[in-house]
Amino acid sequence: MNNFTRQNAIVTAQLDSEGALIDADARLLNAHLENGGTHGGILALPALLELCQRARRLDMQLSRAVTVYCGETRQNIWATAKPGAEGATLEITGWSDSDAGDETSESSADAPEGRVDDTRRIGADGRIRLDAQFKILSMALGPGIPDMAPNNYILRTWTDIFDFPQLSGRFDETALWKQDWRIYDGQVMALRECGIKWLVSVVPEKSGADQPEGYNVYLRVVETENTIAPKPELLDSDHLEKLFSGQLGSTLRQPIGRIIANAQTIGEMLQGPLRSDYASYAKDIAQAGQHLLALVEDLSDLEVVEREGFRAAEDEIELGDLARRAAGLLAVKASDHNIRIDIPCEDETMPALGEFRRVLQILLNLLTNAIRYSPDGSMIWLRLERAGDRAQIIVADQGSGLSPEDQARVFDKFERLGRSGDGGSGLGLYISRKLARAMGGDLQIESAPGLGARFILELPYNFED
Amino acid sequence: MDSRPHKKRFPQAGADDLIRSAQAVSGAALQIGTHVRMQLYPQTGIFMDEAMKARIGAMVLSLGGQAIGLLREESLAENEKIVTQRSFAAEHIGAPSLLRYLFARTTEWSYIQGMEQSELSPDLQRRIESQDGEISKTAMSALIAQSRFVTSVQNYHYPLAELPAELVYTVMQDTVRYLSRDTIAAKKEYKKRAKNILADFDENANRLSGQMKHAVMTFDEAELGDFATLNNVGVSQFFAAIAIHTSVNLDQIYILSAMPDRTAFATLLRAAGYGGGEILKLFELLTLTWHDFEEYGAAQLDGLDINVAQAIVSAWADDGESYPS
Q1: d(CA A292, CA A253)
Q2: What values do phi and psi take at A51, rounded to 5?
Q3: pLDDT higher for A366 or A33?
Q4: Site from B213, B305, B316, B319 to mutate, A interface, most A CB atoms within 10 angstroms
Q5: pLDDT in tens, B18-40
Q6: Which residues on A lie below 8 Å from B323 (Cβ)?
Q7: Inter-chain residue contact A4 with B201, CB threshold 8 Å
Q8: Residues of B in contact with A54 (CB under 8 A)
Q9: In chain A, whose CA is at the least distance from the CA of B220?
Q10: Of A33, A54, A66, B208, which has fewest CB within 10 angstroms of its CB?
Q11: Full-prediction pTM beyond 0.90?
Q12: What is the pLDDT of residue A94?
């Protein structure tokens, strides 16, 4: 009976203050990677991440039994999280080696679903458990929603209780429960005679059988009786961006970066002579890689700004300082084209409210475009103005300008205005305007063909400065 | 297993003595106990006799006294001590997380009291003698900690260091707030002391943590089925193993077991894989009565599909860890 089969060696890991895994023993690192984590990314084992965050919040050592998913197995482990100045340290015991066929690990076909289950559960407002025939076993619709008496829903088919407006008419509604669970996944669900709507996420439960034995349904409120509900954020925008860009950074940026570096090394013939046409191909590869990298950066930003509820911080910023910083960062690029950037003088200020790095990002985008589309030897101006309660920064160039039709389209997603091969993704201005609006401002254009373009970034003026 | 002679039952007969003892600690104890029920379980009608209420109230006072003692380096006059303890208890009457925890511990203690004071079970002996140093150490620690726990609760006391970290944190923060409300100048100093105390807190040394760690490290399917060795140590280990197996919070399991309608606890045990006959034997071992025994006999419990039981229990598991920070 007492087969002490657990591996009692201690597995350790180090997390930074954001929850990114900066050092780990092989077993934990493998579990992290198997769960979709990346080198240097946020720890992809939610239960352990939560433990570390709680230990840091309390500034106390916590020791708990934790369930984690490793590959195809679910395991109970013992974890101790120790908070530190820079992050937290994890110490884990009781971790069996699944490769060794440990009998104590619970290996089953539902492990991947269980992992998905774990991840979705974190952000859910409510939860419904269904049996294999879509009959309700238990239901918790979330805080603030009136309770229903259990005898009104227990073991009733859930489509008797809830409506699925988007599925209406697509199927025989009286037989909806007979359909595949996948038709419900990602649908909006409404409670009858009540104005509340949820986004539905269905996770089947399996234990080796082909057919699910039941379902976990996770609910996120998308609309309440009175208004569109501000959806509670699982992570704030900073965290999301870090998570996304961190994972993308490892999976895409790193290999692309290596491709570029190797191609440049070959193209520059740094490791020995090479046939000139091969060197030329390598330079093409490096250039294409840089283009791809820029696209990855833009897609990363796009992911962030398109998330519902995205908000930027409201820092007290000074637009004159930001203009001078942006110009300084692109000075070399401008001088390559013999373009001069006229910046506000040192004593010129324009206090505003917005997120420092976001505003800098917008200015860098506007300036990069201005340099890209201005003739060599021309001038770009950065000007500060105030219009009532708005602080403005204007980027003006001597490029070819835009027609009214093009001005109407220039902020659209993936809009290139017929240009190609210039390294742009068609996302920069779209993202910039989204960012400006998230900060309570706007981004507009004034232009005419042959007369250059003026991009006006508006932000709330900081009256308290 | 089911033929143990002279099983000691929960000392209902001595309830009056317990109440009198608790009143000696503080006249507020009974009042606190009433609040425990009103604050926490108004719908469930959970079973809690007057002795249990008194014991929980006394443990709140005990915790307050310890927190005050740790934060105030100079000793307090006896009168002042009683006043501050009672004030602390009054502040915590409405703190469901603390009362919930203490209710679970009192329930656990009541089961232990109902067990035979037998010699060490063969199971525990094997663990202590294990060649694996960690297993042996954990088993020995569990034995010592269990003894300390039984004595503490018996004496209307609960060690602050045995609380989960979140509750220690809450108690210390509240005590700092209480102590410094009349002496704002001292607040900084109290906060500093509390910070040092919390930094030294080691949840790994906690009795329940030890049991859960032990369950994680030694648990397997066969072991869960073996409740023949339930004794005054084994009952806590058994519940810890159930918690690991079902992923339901340990306190939640004790609270479910204390509900007068045993259906919830029976469902939990069914979800853990027990058959109807085994569940009823467990009830007997734990001296739990189930008035609807005939109605819900073993056959009825067997008829409850394990998957359905697991699905229902899984919903309870979500409400598990509920210690606020």
Answers
A1: 9
A2: -60, -45
A3: A366
A4: B213
A5: 333 333 333 333 333 344 444 44
A6: none
A7: no
A8: 166, 325
A9: A104
A10: A33
A11: no
A12: 79
Tell me which of A417 and A99 has the higher pLDDT.
A417
Contacts of A223 (CB under 8 A, 6+ apart): A195, A196, A197, A229
* CB pairs < 8 Å spanning A and B: 109
The torsion angles phi and psi of B210, rounded to 5 degrees, stand at -60, -40
Q: Which residues pair with A139 in a beta bridge?
A: A128
**Residues whose CB is less than 8 angstroms from the CB of residue A435 and which lie 6 or more positions away in sequence, other chains included:** A305, A312, A358, A361, A362
| Edge-to-edge strand ranges of the sheet holding A126-131 | A136-140, A126-131, A214-223, A197-205, A188-191, A162-163
**Closest approach of A139 to chain B, Cα-based (Å):** 8
Whether residues B169 and A67 touch (CB distance < 8 A) is answered with no
Nearest to A8 among B134, B220, B318 (CB): B134
Count of other CB atoms within 10 angstroms of residue A322: 25
Asked if B244 and A60 come within 8 Å (Cβ–Cβ), the reply is: no
Closest residue in B to A141 (Cα–Cα): B315
Both structure tokens of A436: 């400006």
Residue A59 to residue B195, Cβ atoms within 8 A: yes
Cβ separation A58–B212 shorter than 8 A: no
Residues in chain B: 325
Using pLDDT thresholds of 50, 70 and 90, give the confidence band for residue A227. very low
Interface residues from chain A to B (CB-CB < 8 Å) = 1-6, 8, 54-55, 57-65, 67, 76-78, 80, 93-94, 103-104, 121, 127, 129, 131, 137-138, 140, 205, 207, 213-214, 216
**What's the rounded Cα separation, in Å, for the pair B214 and B175?**
33
Residue of B nearest to A53 (CA): B325
Helix or strand holding residue B303 (H, E): helix B298-303
B41 forms beta bridges with none
| Non-local CB neighbours of A7 within 8 Å, separated by 6+ positions | A94, A95, A96, A97, A102
Determine, for residues B219 and A76 on separate chains, whether the beta-carbon distance falls below 8 Å. Answer: yes
Task: In whole angstroms, give the CA distance from residue B322 to residue B250.
Answer: 11
> Which residues of chain B neighbour A129 with C-beta distances below 8 Å?
311-312, 314-315
Residue B317 has a pLDDT of 59
In the prediction, which pLDDT does A71 show? 59
| Tens-place pLDDT, residues B240-269 | 888 888 888 888 888 778 766 677 788 788
Per-residue confidence (pLDDT) for residue B15, from 0 to 100: 33
d(CA B63, CA B159): 7
Residues 6+ apart with CB under 8 A from B153: B55, B59, B105, B106, B109
Vertex A239: Cα angle to A238 and A244 (nearest 5):
100
ipTM: 0.77
Taking an 8 Å cut-off on Cβ atoms, the answer to whether A59 and B199 are in contact is yes
| CB spacing of A54 vs B218 below 8 angstroms | no
The predicted structure's pLDDT at residue A160: 81
Sheet of A379-387: strand order equals A340-342, A379-387, A390-396, A453-460, A442-447
Q: B64: closest CA among B157, B198, B162?
A: B157
* Residue B89: pLDDT over 70: no
Angle B287-B290-B291 from CA coordinates, rounded to 5°: 130
